[in-house]
Every structure is written in C-alpha cells, then in structure tokens.
Amino acid sequence: MERAIAVSVLVSLLMAFHPLKMISANMEGDALHSLRSNLEDPNSVLQSWDPTLVNPCTWFHVTCNNENSVIRVDLGNAELSGQLVPQLGQLKNLQYLELYSNKITGPIPSDIGNLTNLDSRLNNNSLSGNIPMSLTNITALQVLDLSNNHLSGPVPDNGSFSLFTPISFANNLNLCGPVTGKPCPGSPPFAPPPPFVQPTISSPGGYSATGAIAGGVAAGAALLFAAPAIGFAWWRRRKPQEYFFDVPAEEDPEVQLGQLKRFSLRELHVATDGFSNKNILGRGGFGKVYRGRLADGSLVAVKRLKEERTPGGELQFQTEVEMISMAVHRNLLRLRGFCMTPSERILVYPYMANGSVVSCLRERQPSEPPLDWPTRKRIALGSARGLSYLHDHCDPKIIHRDVKAANILLDEEFEAVVGDFGLAKLMDYKDTHVTTAVRGTIGHIAPEYLSTGKSSEKTDVFGYGIMLLELITGQRAFDLSRLANDDDVMLLDWVKGLLKEKKLEMLVDPDLQNNYIEAEVQQLIQVALLCTQGSPMDRPKMSEVVRMLEGDGLAEKWEEWQKVEVVRQEVELTAPRSSEWILDSTNNLHAVELSGPR
C-alpha cells in the first residue's frame, strides 16, 4: 500500500514538472532538430541545437517569449544548404523566420501556412517550385520576402497577397499571374477594364443632352480620389525593401534570447533621451556608453558599439553576444540584453552606481571620500577572480585584451565587476580567430601583444598587473605630465624607479593619507611585478594570482623570481644583488620599449 502511494506521489510530481508548455517546447525542439538534420551546416552554427535538451530556447539563434515558445529563428547569411521541412509548421508562435542569403533549395513547405503570425525573409536562396496557396491564409502577414529565388508558377492574388501587403517576389523569372503582370502559360489573357459608358442626362425641358461635361467632371473626381490610393498602393509595393531593412530595429521588447533580452532600438532611444550627450557615461575604443532609464524605471548602461559592417555580421554578432552572456560570475558585469539592427549594435548592462575604479581614483568630487585601503584590496581580489573565471571556466575561454582600471566597475557595495570582456572578440568577428588587430590602451598593453598582435590570457595578466599599480598609486598607466618632474611616463617604469630608490611611501596614493598597511602594499606590488614580467611564460595564471592574493604561495613565487633575477644580474653585472626589490633590468626594460612611447 505504501509503495502504491509512493508511486502515485511520484507520478503526480512528474506531471507537475511537465506542463503543457514543456510538451510544446519538446515539439518545437523536435521540429527545429528536423530542420537541422535536413541542412548542411559547414560553419557549425547549429552545433548547439542538441535534441537531448528539453528547451530549444537555450539554443543559439533561437529566440523565445516568456512562455518558452519559439518566436524567432535567425539563420541569415549562415551558408546553410539543404531543404526546408514541413515540421516548421509546428512552430505555432513563430513570428520571424530569417533564412535569407543561404543556399537553401527545394520547395517552400505548405505547412508554413499554419504560422499565423509569420514574418519571413527567405530571399537570396535557391528555392524552387510554386508559392504555396496556404500562405494566403496568414491574415496577419506583415513581411514576406521571396525575392531572388527560382520560384515558378502563379503568384496568389488573394488573401495576404493582396495589393496592400508588403510581399516581395522579385527576380523569380518564372513566376506569373495577374499580380506580376505576366500571364501564366495556357491561361487566358488578362481581361481589359470595362469600357467607360457615357451617361445620358435628361433635361427638365424635355430634351436629351450628352453628359460629356458631367462625365468628365465625374471621371476627374474619381481620378482625384483614386490617386492617393494608387500612390499608396505603389508605395506599399516598393516599401518591403525598406521595411525588411528596419524590421530588426522594432523588436518586441519582451522577447528573450535565452536569458538575454533583445531590446528594440526605439526603447533604447527613449531610455537615453535620443542618445543625448548629457547621458554619456564614457567613451572608449568600442564606442560610447549612455546612462538610460527603461520604462520599468530601472537604470541601465547602454553601450553603443562602433564597428564596420560586414556581410554575415548579424549572425556572428548574435553568436558572440550569446557567448558573452554565458559568462556569469559575481565579479563579471552581467549582460542584460542587446539590440541588433542593420545599422546598430548595442549592448545593455546594469547601471553601476559607483562608476569605475578610475572614476573613484581620479575623477571623484571633492565631497566624495577616496577609496580606502581595505576597499582597494577587495577590488584587487574581486577583479582577479573575475578574470580567472573568464580564462579557466568559460568554454571557449574569453580573453579580455583591455584590462585596466577604467574597465573595473564598482557596484553599490564597491565590489569589483569586470566589464567590457568579450568585446575585443566581438569587434573582430570579421577577422579569423587569430586576429592581428591590436586593441588596448597605451601603458596596459603587453609587449608580445603589441609586437605580434597575438593575445592570450597572459596579456590579460600583464594588464591586470598594471591595474594593480593604478590601484596602489592612483596614477595613470601612461601620463605625459610626469615628464615635468623628469619621471617616466610609463607607470611601470615609474614604480620600478622608486623601488630601486627604496621610496615605497612615494608610491602609495596620497589620498590614502598613510592609512594603509605597508606589508600589504608590498605584497600587492610584488604580485603586480610578477604579473608584468616581460616574458608571458614567466607570468602567473590568473588562478595563481587569486591564490596569492588570498595568502597562498606569494612568498614562494616572489623568492623564486628573485633567485632567477640574481642569476641574470650576476651575468650582466648590473643592479646590486642585495637590493630589497630586485628588478629585471634587461627583459622588462625591453618590454617597456615595446609597450609604447617613452
């Protein structure tokens, strides 16, 4: 009896966790997997379409609404070949089917007529056969682009295919029918319009007069009232090309891409007051960042990317954005959403009330207190943890390529949040995976990256070391004003020079007013110097940096490094071995020369 009750409870629980919408998600996943099985995918853009996953909303290039129903499939410019499948008709809530500019062949399945909310771009493929009459059943059809294919036969001239619906079927040479102006083979010629019958008007005086004048006036009036309709019809016939161009800019604000929201351009335009200059939070190599307030009252940081448009960029951009969104960690800036139109690429993040480390170090108001030493130590550890996650826990690993104090943001509790990660790859999507475009900031760039253009996690380690020196000193990584005191413009050189002279107290940010622990400052400087060694092979991994900051292994690493430097300096007969701070006077000086102007 107890066993029967237990089984009954188990069945009830299983039923509770399998509502109808999960069954629907399974059906939609099966339908999309059928499509994947029927397509050749040379670039593996459908690799994430795993049939063992219950919910297709987690797949790349698939967008769902809040009910976990598929509403968008984005596969334009993906070099896909093969044929469409009837199972697409099972995606009952599908609104956008973007398969333009591929190599898809075969007929358009008539089952697509089941998609009552469909907007679709199937243009620039090699589709053949007739346009299914079932498409005329989609009464809400807003956009259908079938242009530049090999379709044939009559074009429907009823239902959704009426004169005032934006449907494009240009450059399909074998289409025919009244809508195209080309009669179909074997069909009767188009009937001419009925002849105009001139009315006859009888006068009260009993005589009959022709109605030429009255008829002319009536015809003129009819033409006058018909002209706007004709003009509007012509405009709507030509409108699809523009409309297709702007469709992605007007997305439903509630659309979700997995856990990522796809904002409309209009929504972000309103949130930022038309991207007003008064709302600019910062400018950088990737674009401008604006403060915005959404309709729900929440504050956001809106990063409007600047980039060169390339064919197929939409798909790659969306892929990279999805990859960035998967990096979730306490010390990483969470991507809230994005906006993608043919002319805009925008990322939306939560607003960080305390700005960046740079704004707190060098741009704070006189009434604002400086960052105290415990907060700086916490920032050092938190940012290290965030970078370590990018390097060791993301697959594929994410290389930041521009680690600096300006990209370490601070939340309400002054916890470090690494921002702008993944953007270097995102902006270089038009290159191969080995990019030669150096991105970064003078003073932060690792020497091997500057000289070869090849980045790795060790280039991030170098940038992190420079960021630590910024945190300790409050100084800029590259500052020409230091020339006035005959000092080095490069922060790394400036720090080394003071260490040689044993002037540790001159290194520490004066804003701290001597409220720091000297031993802890020394430890952070040691970590910074280990991270900024000239050879990337000699630098620690970020996971090792985390352990050192947590108190594990720094003394051993520092002692080992000093022994190596003693041997080098004995060979080169340079700096004294007894120095408390032993510096690499060969390799690191060479590194500084590669890092930028002195």
In short:
With 598 residues, this protein is an alpha/beta fold. It contains 16 helices and 23 strands.
Topology (elements, then pairings):
Elements: H1 2-16, H2 20-37, E1 39-40, E2 62-64, E3 70-74, E4 81-83, E5 96-98, E6 103-106, E7 119-121, E8 126-129, E9 144-145, E10 150-154, E11 167-168, E12 174-176, E13 200-202, E14 208-210, H3 212-246, E15 256-257, E16 260-262, H4 265-271, E17 280-284, E18 287-293, E19 299-305, H5 313-325, E20 337-340, E21 345-350, H6 357-362, H7 373-392, E22 408-410, E23 416-418, H8 423-427, H9 447-452, H10 457-473, H11 491-500, H12 504-507, H13 518-531, H14 542-549, H15 554-572, H16 587-594
Explain what the structure shows:
There is one protein chain. Helices cover 34% and strands 14% of the residues. It has three domains: 18-176, Ribonuclease Inhibitor (Leucine-rich repeat, LRR (right-handed beta-alpha superhelix)); 265-351, Phosphorylase Kinase, domain 1, CATH 3.30.200.20; 353-594, Transferase(Phosphotransferase) domain 1 (Transferase(Phosphotransferase), domain 1, Orthogonal Bundle). Helix 7 runs antiparallel to helix 14 and helix 13 crosses helix 15 (554-572). It has a seven-stranded mixed sheet, sandwiched between helices. Strands 1-4-6-8-10-12 form a six-stranded mixed sheet. The protein has a six-stranded mixed sheet with strand order 2-3-5-7-9-11, with helices on one face. Residues 1-23, 192-256, 428-437 and 575-598 have low confidence and may be disordered. The chain is of the alpha/beta class and 598 residues long. Strand 2 and strand 3 (70-74) form a beta hairpin.
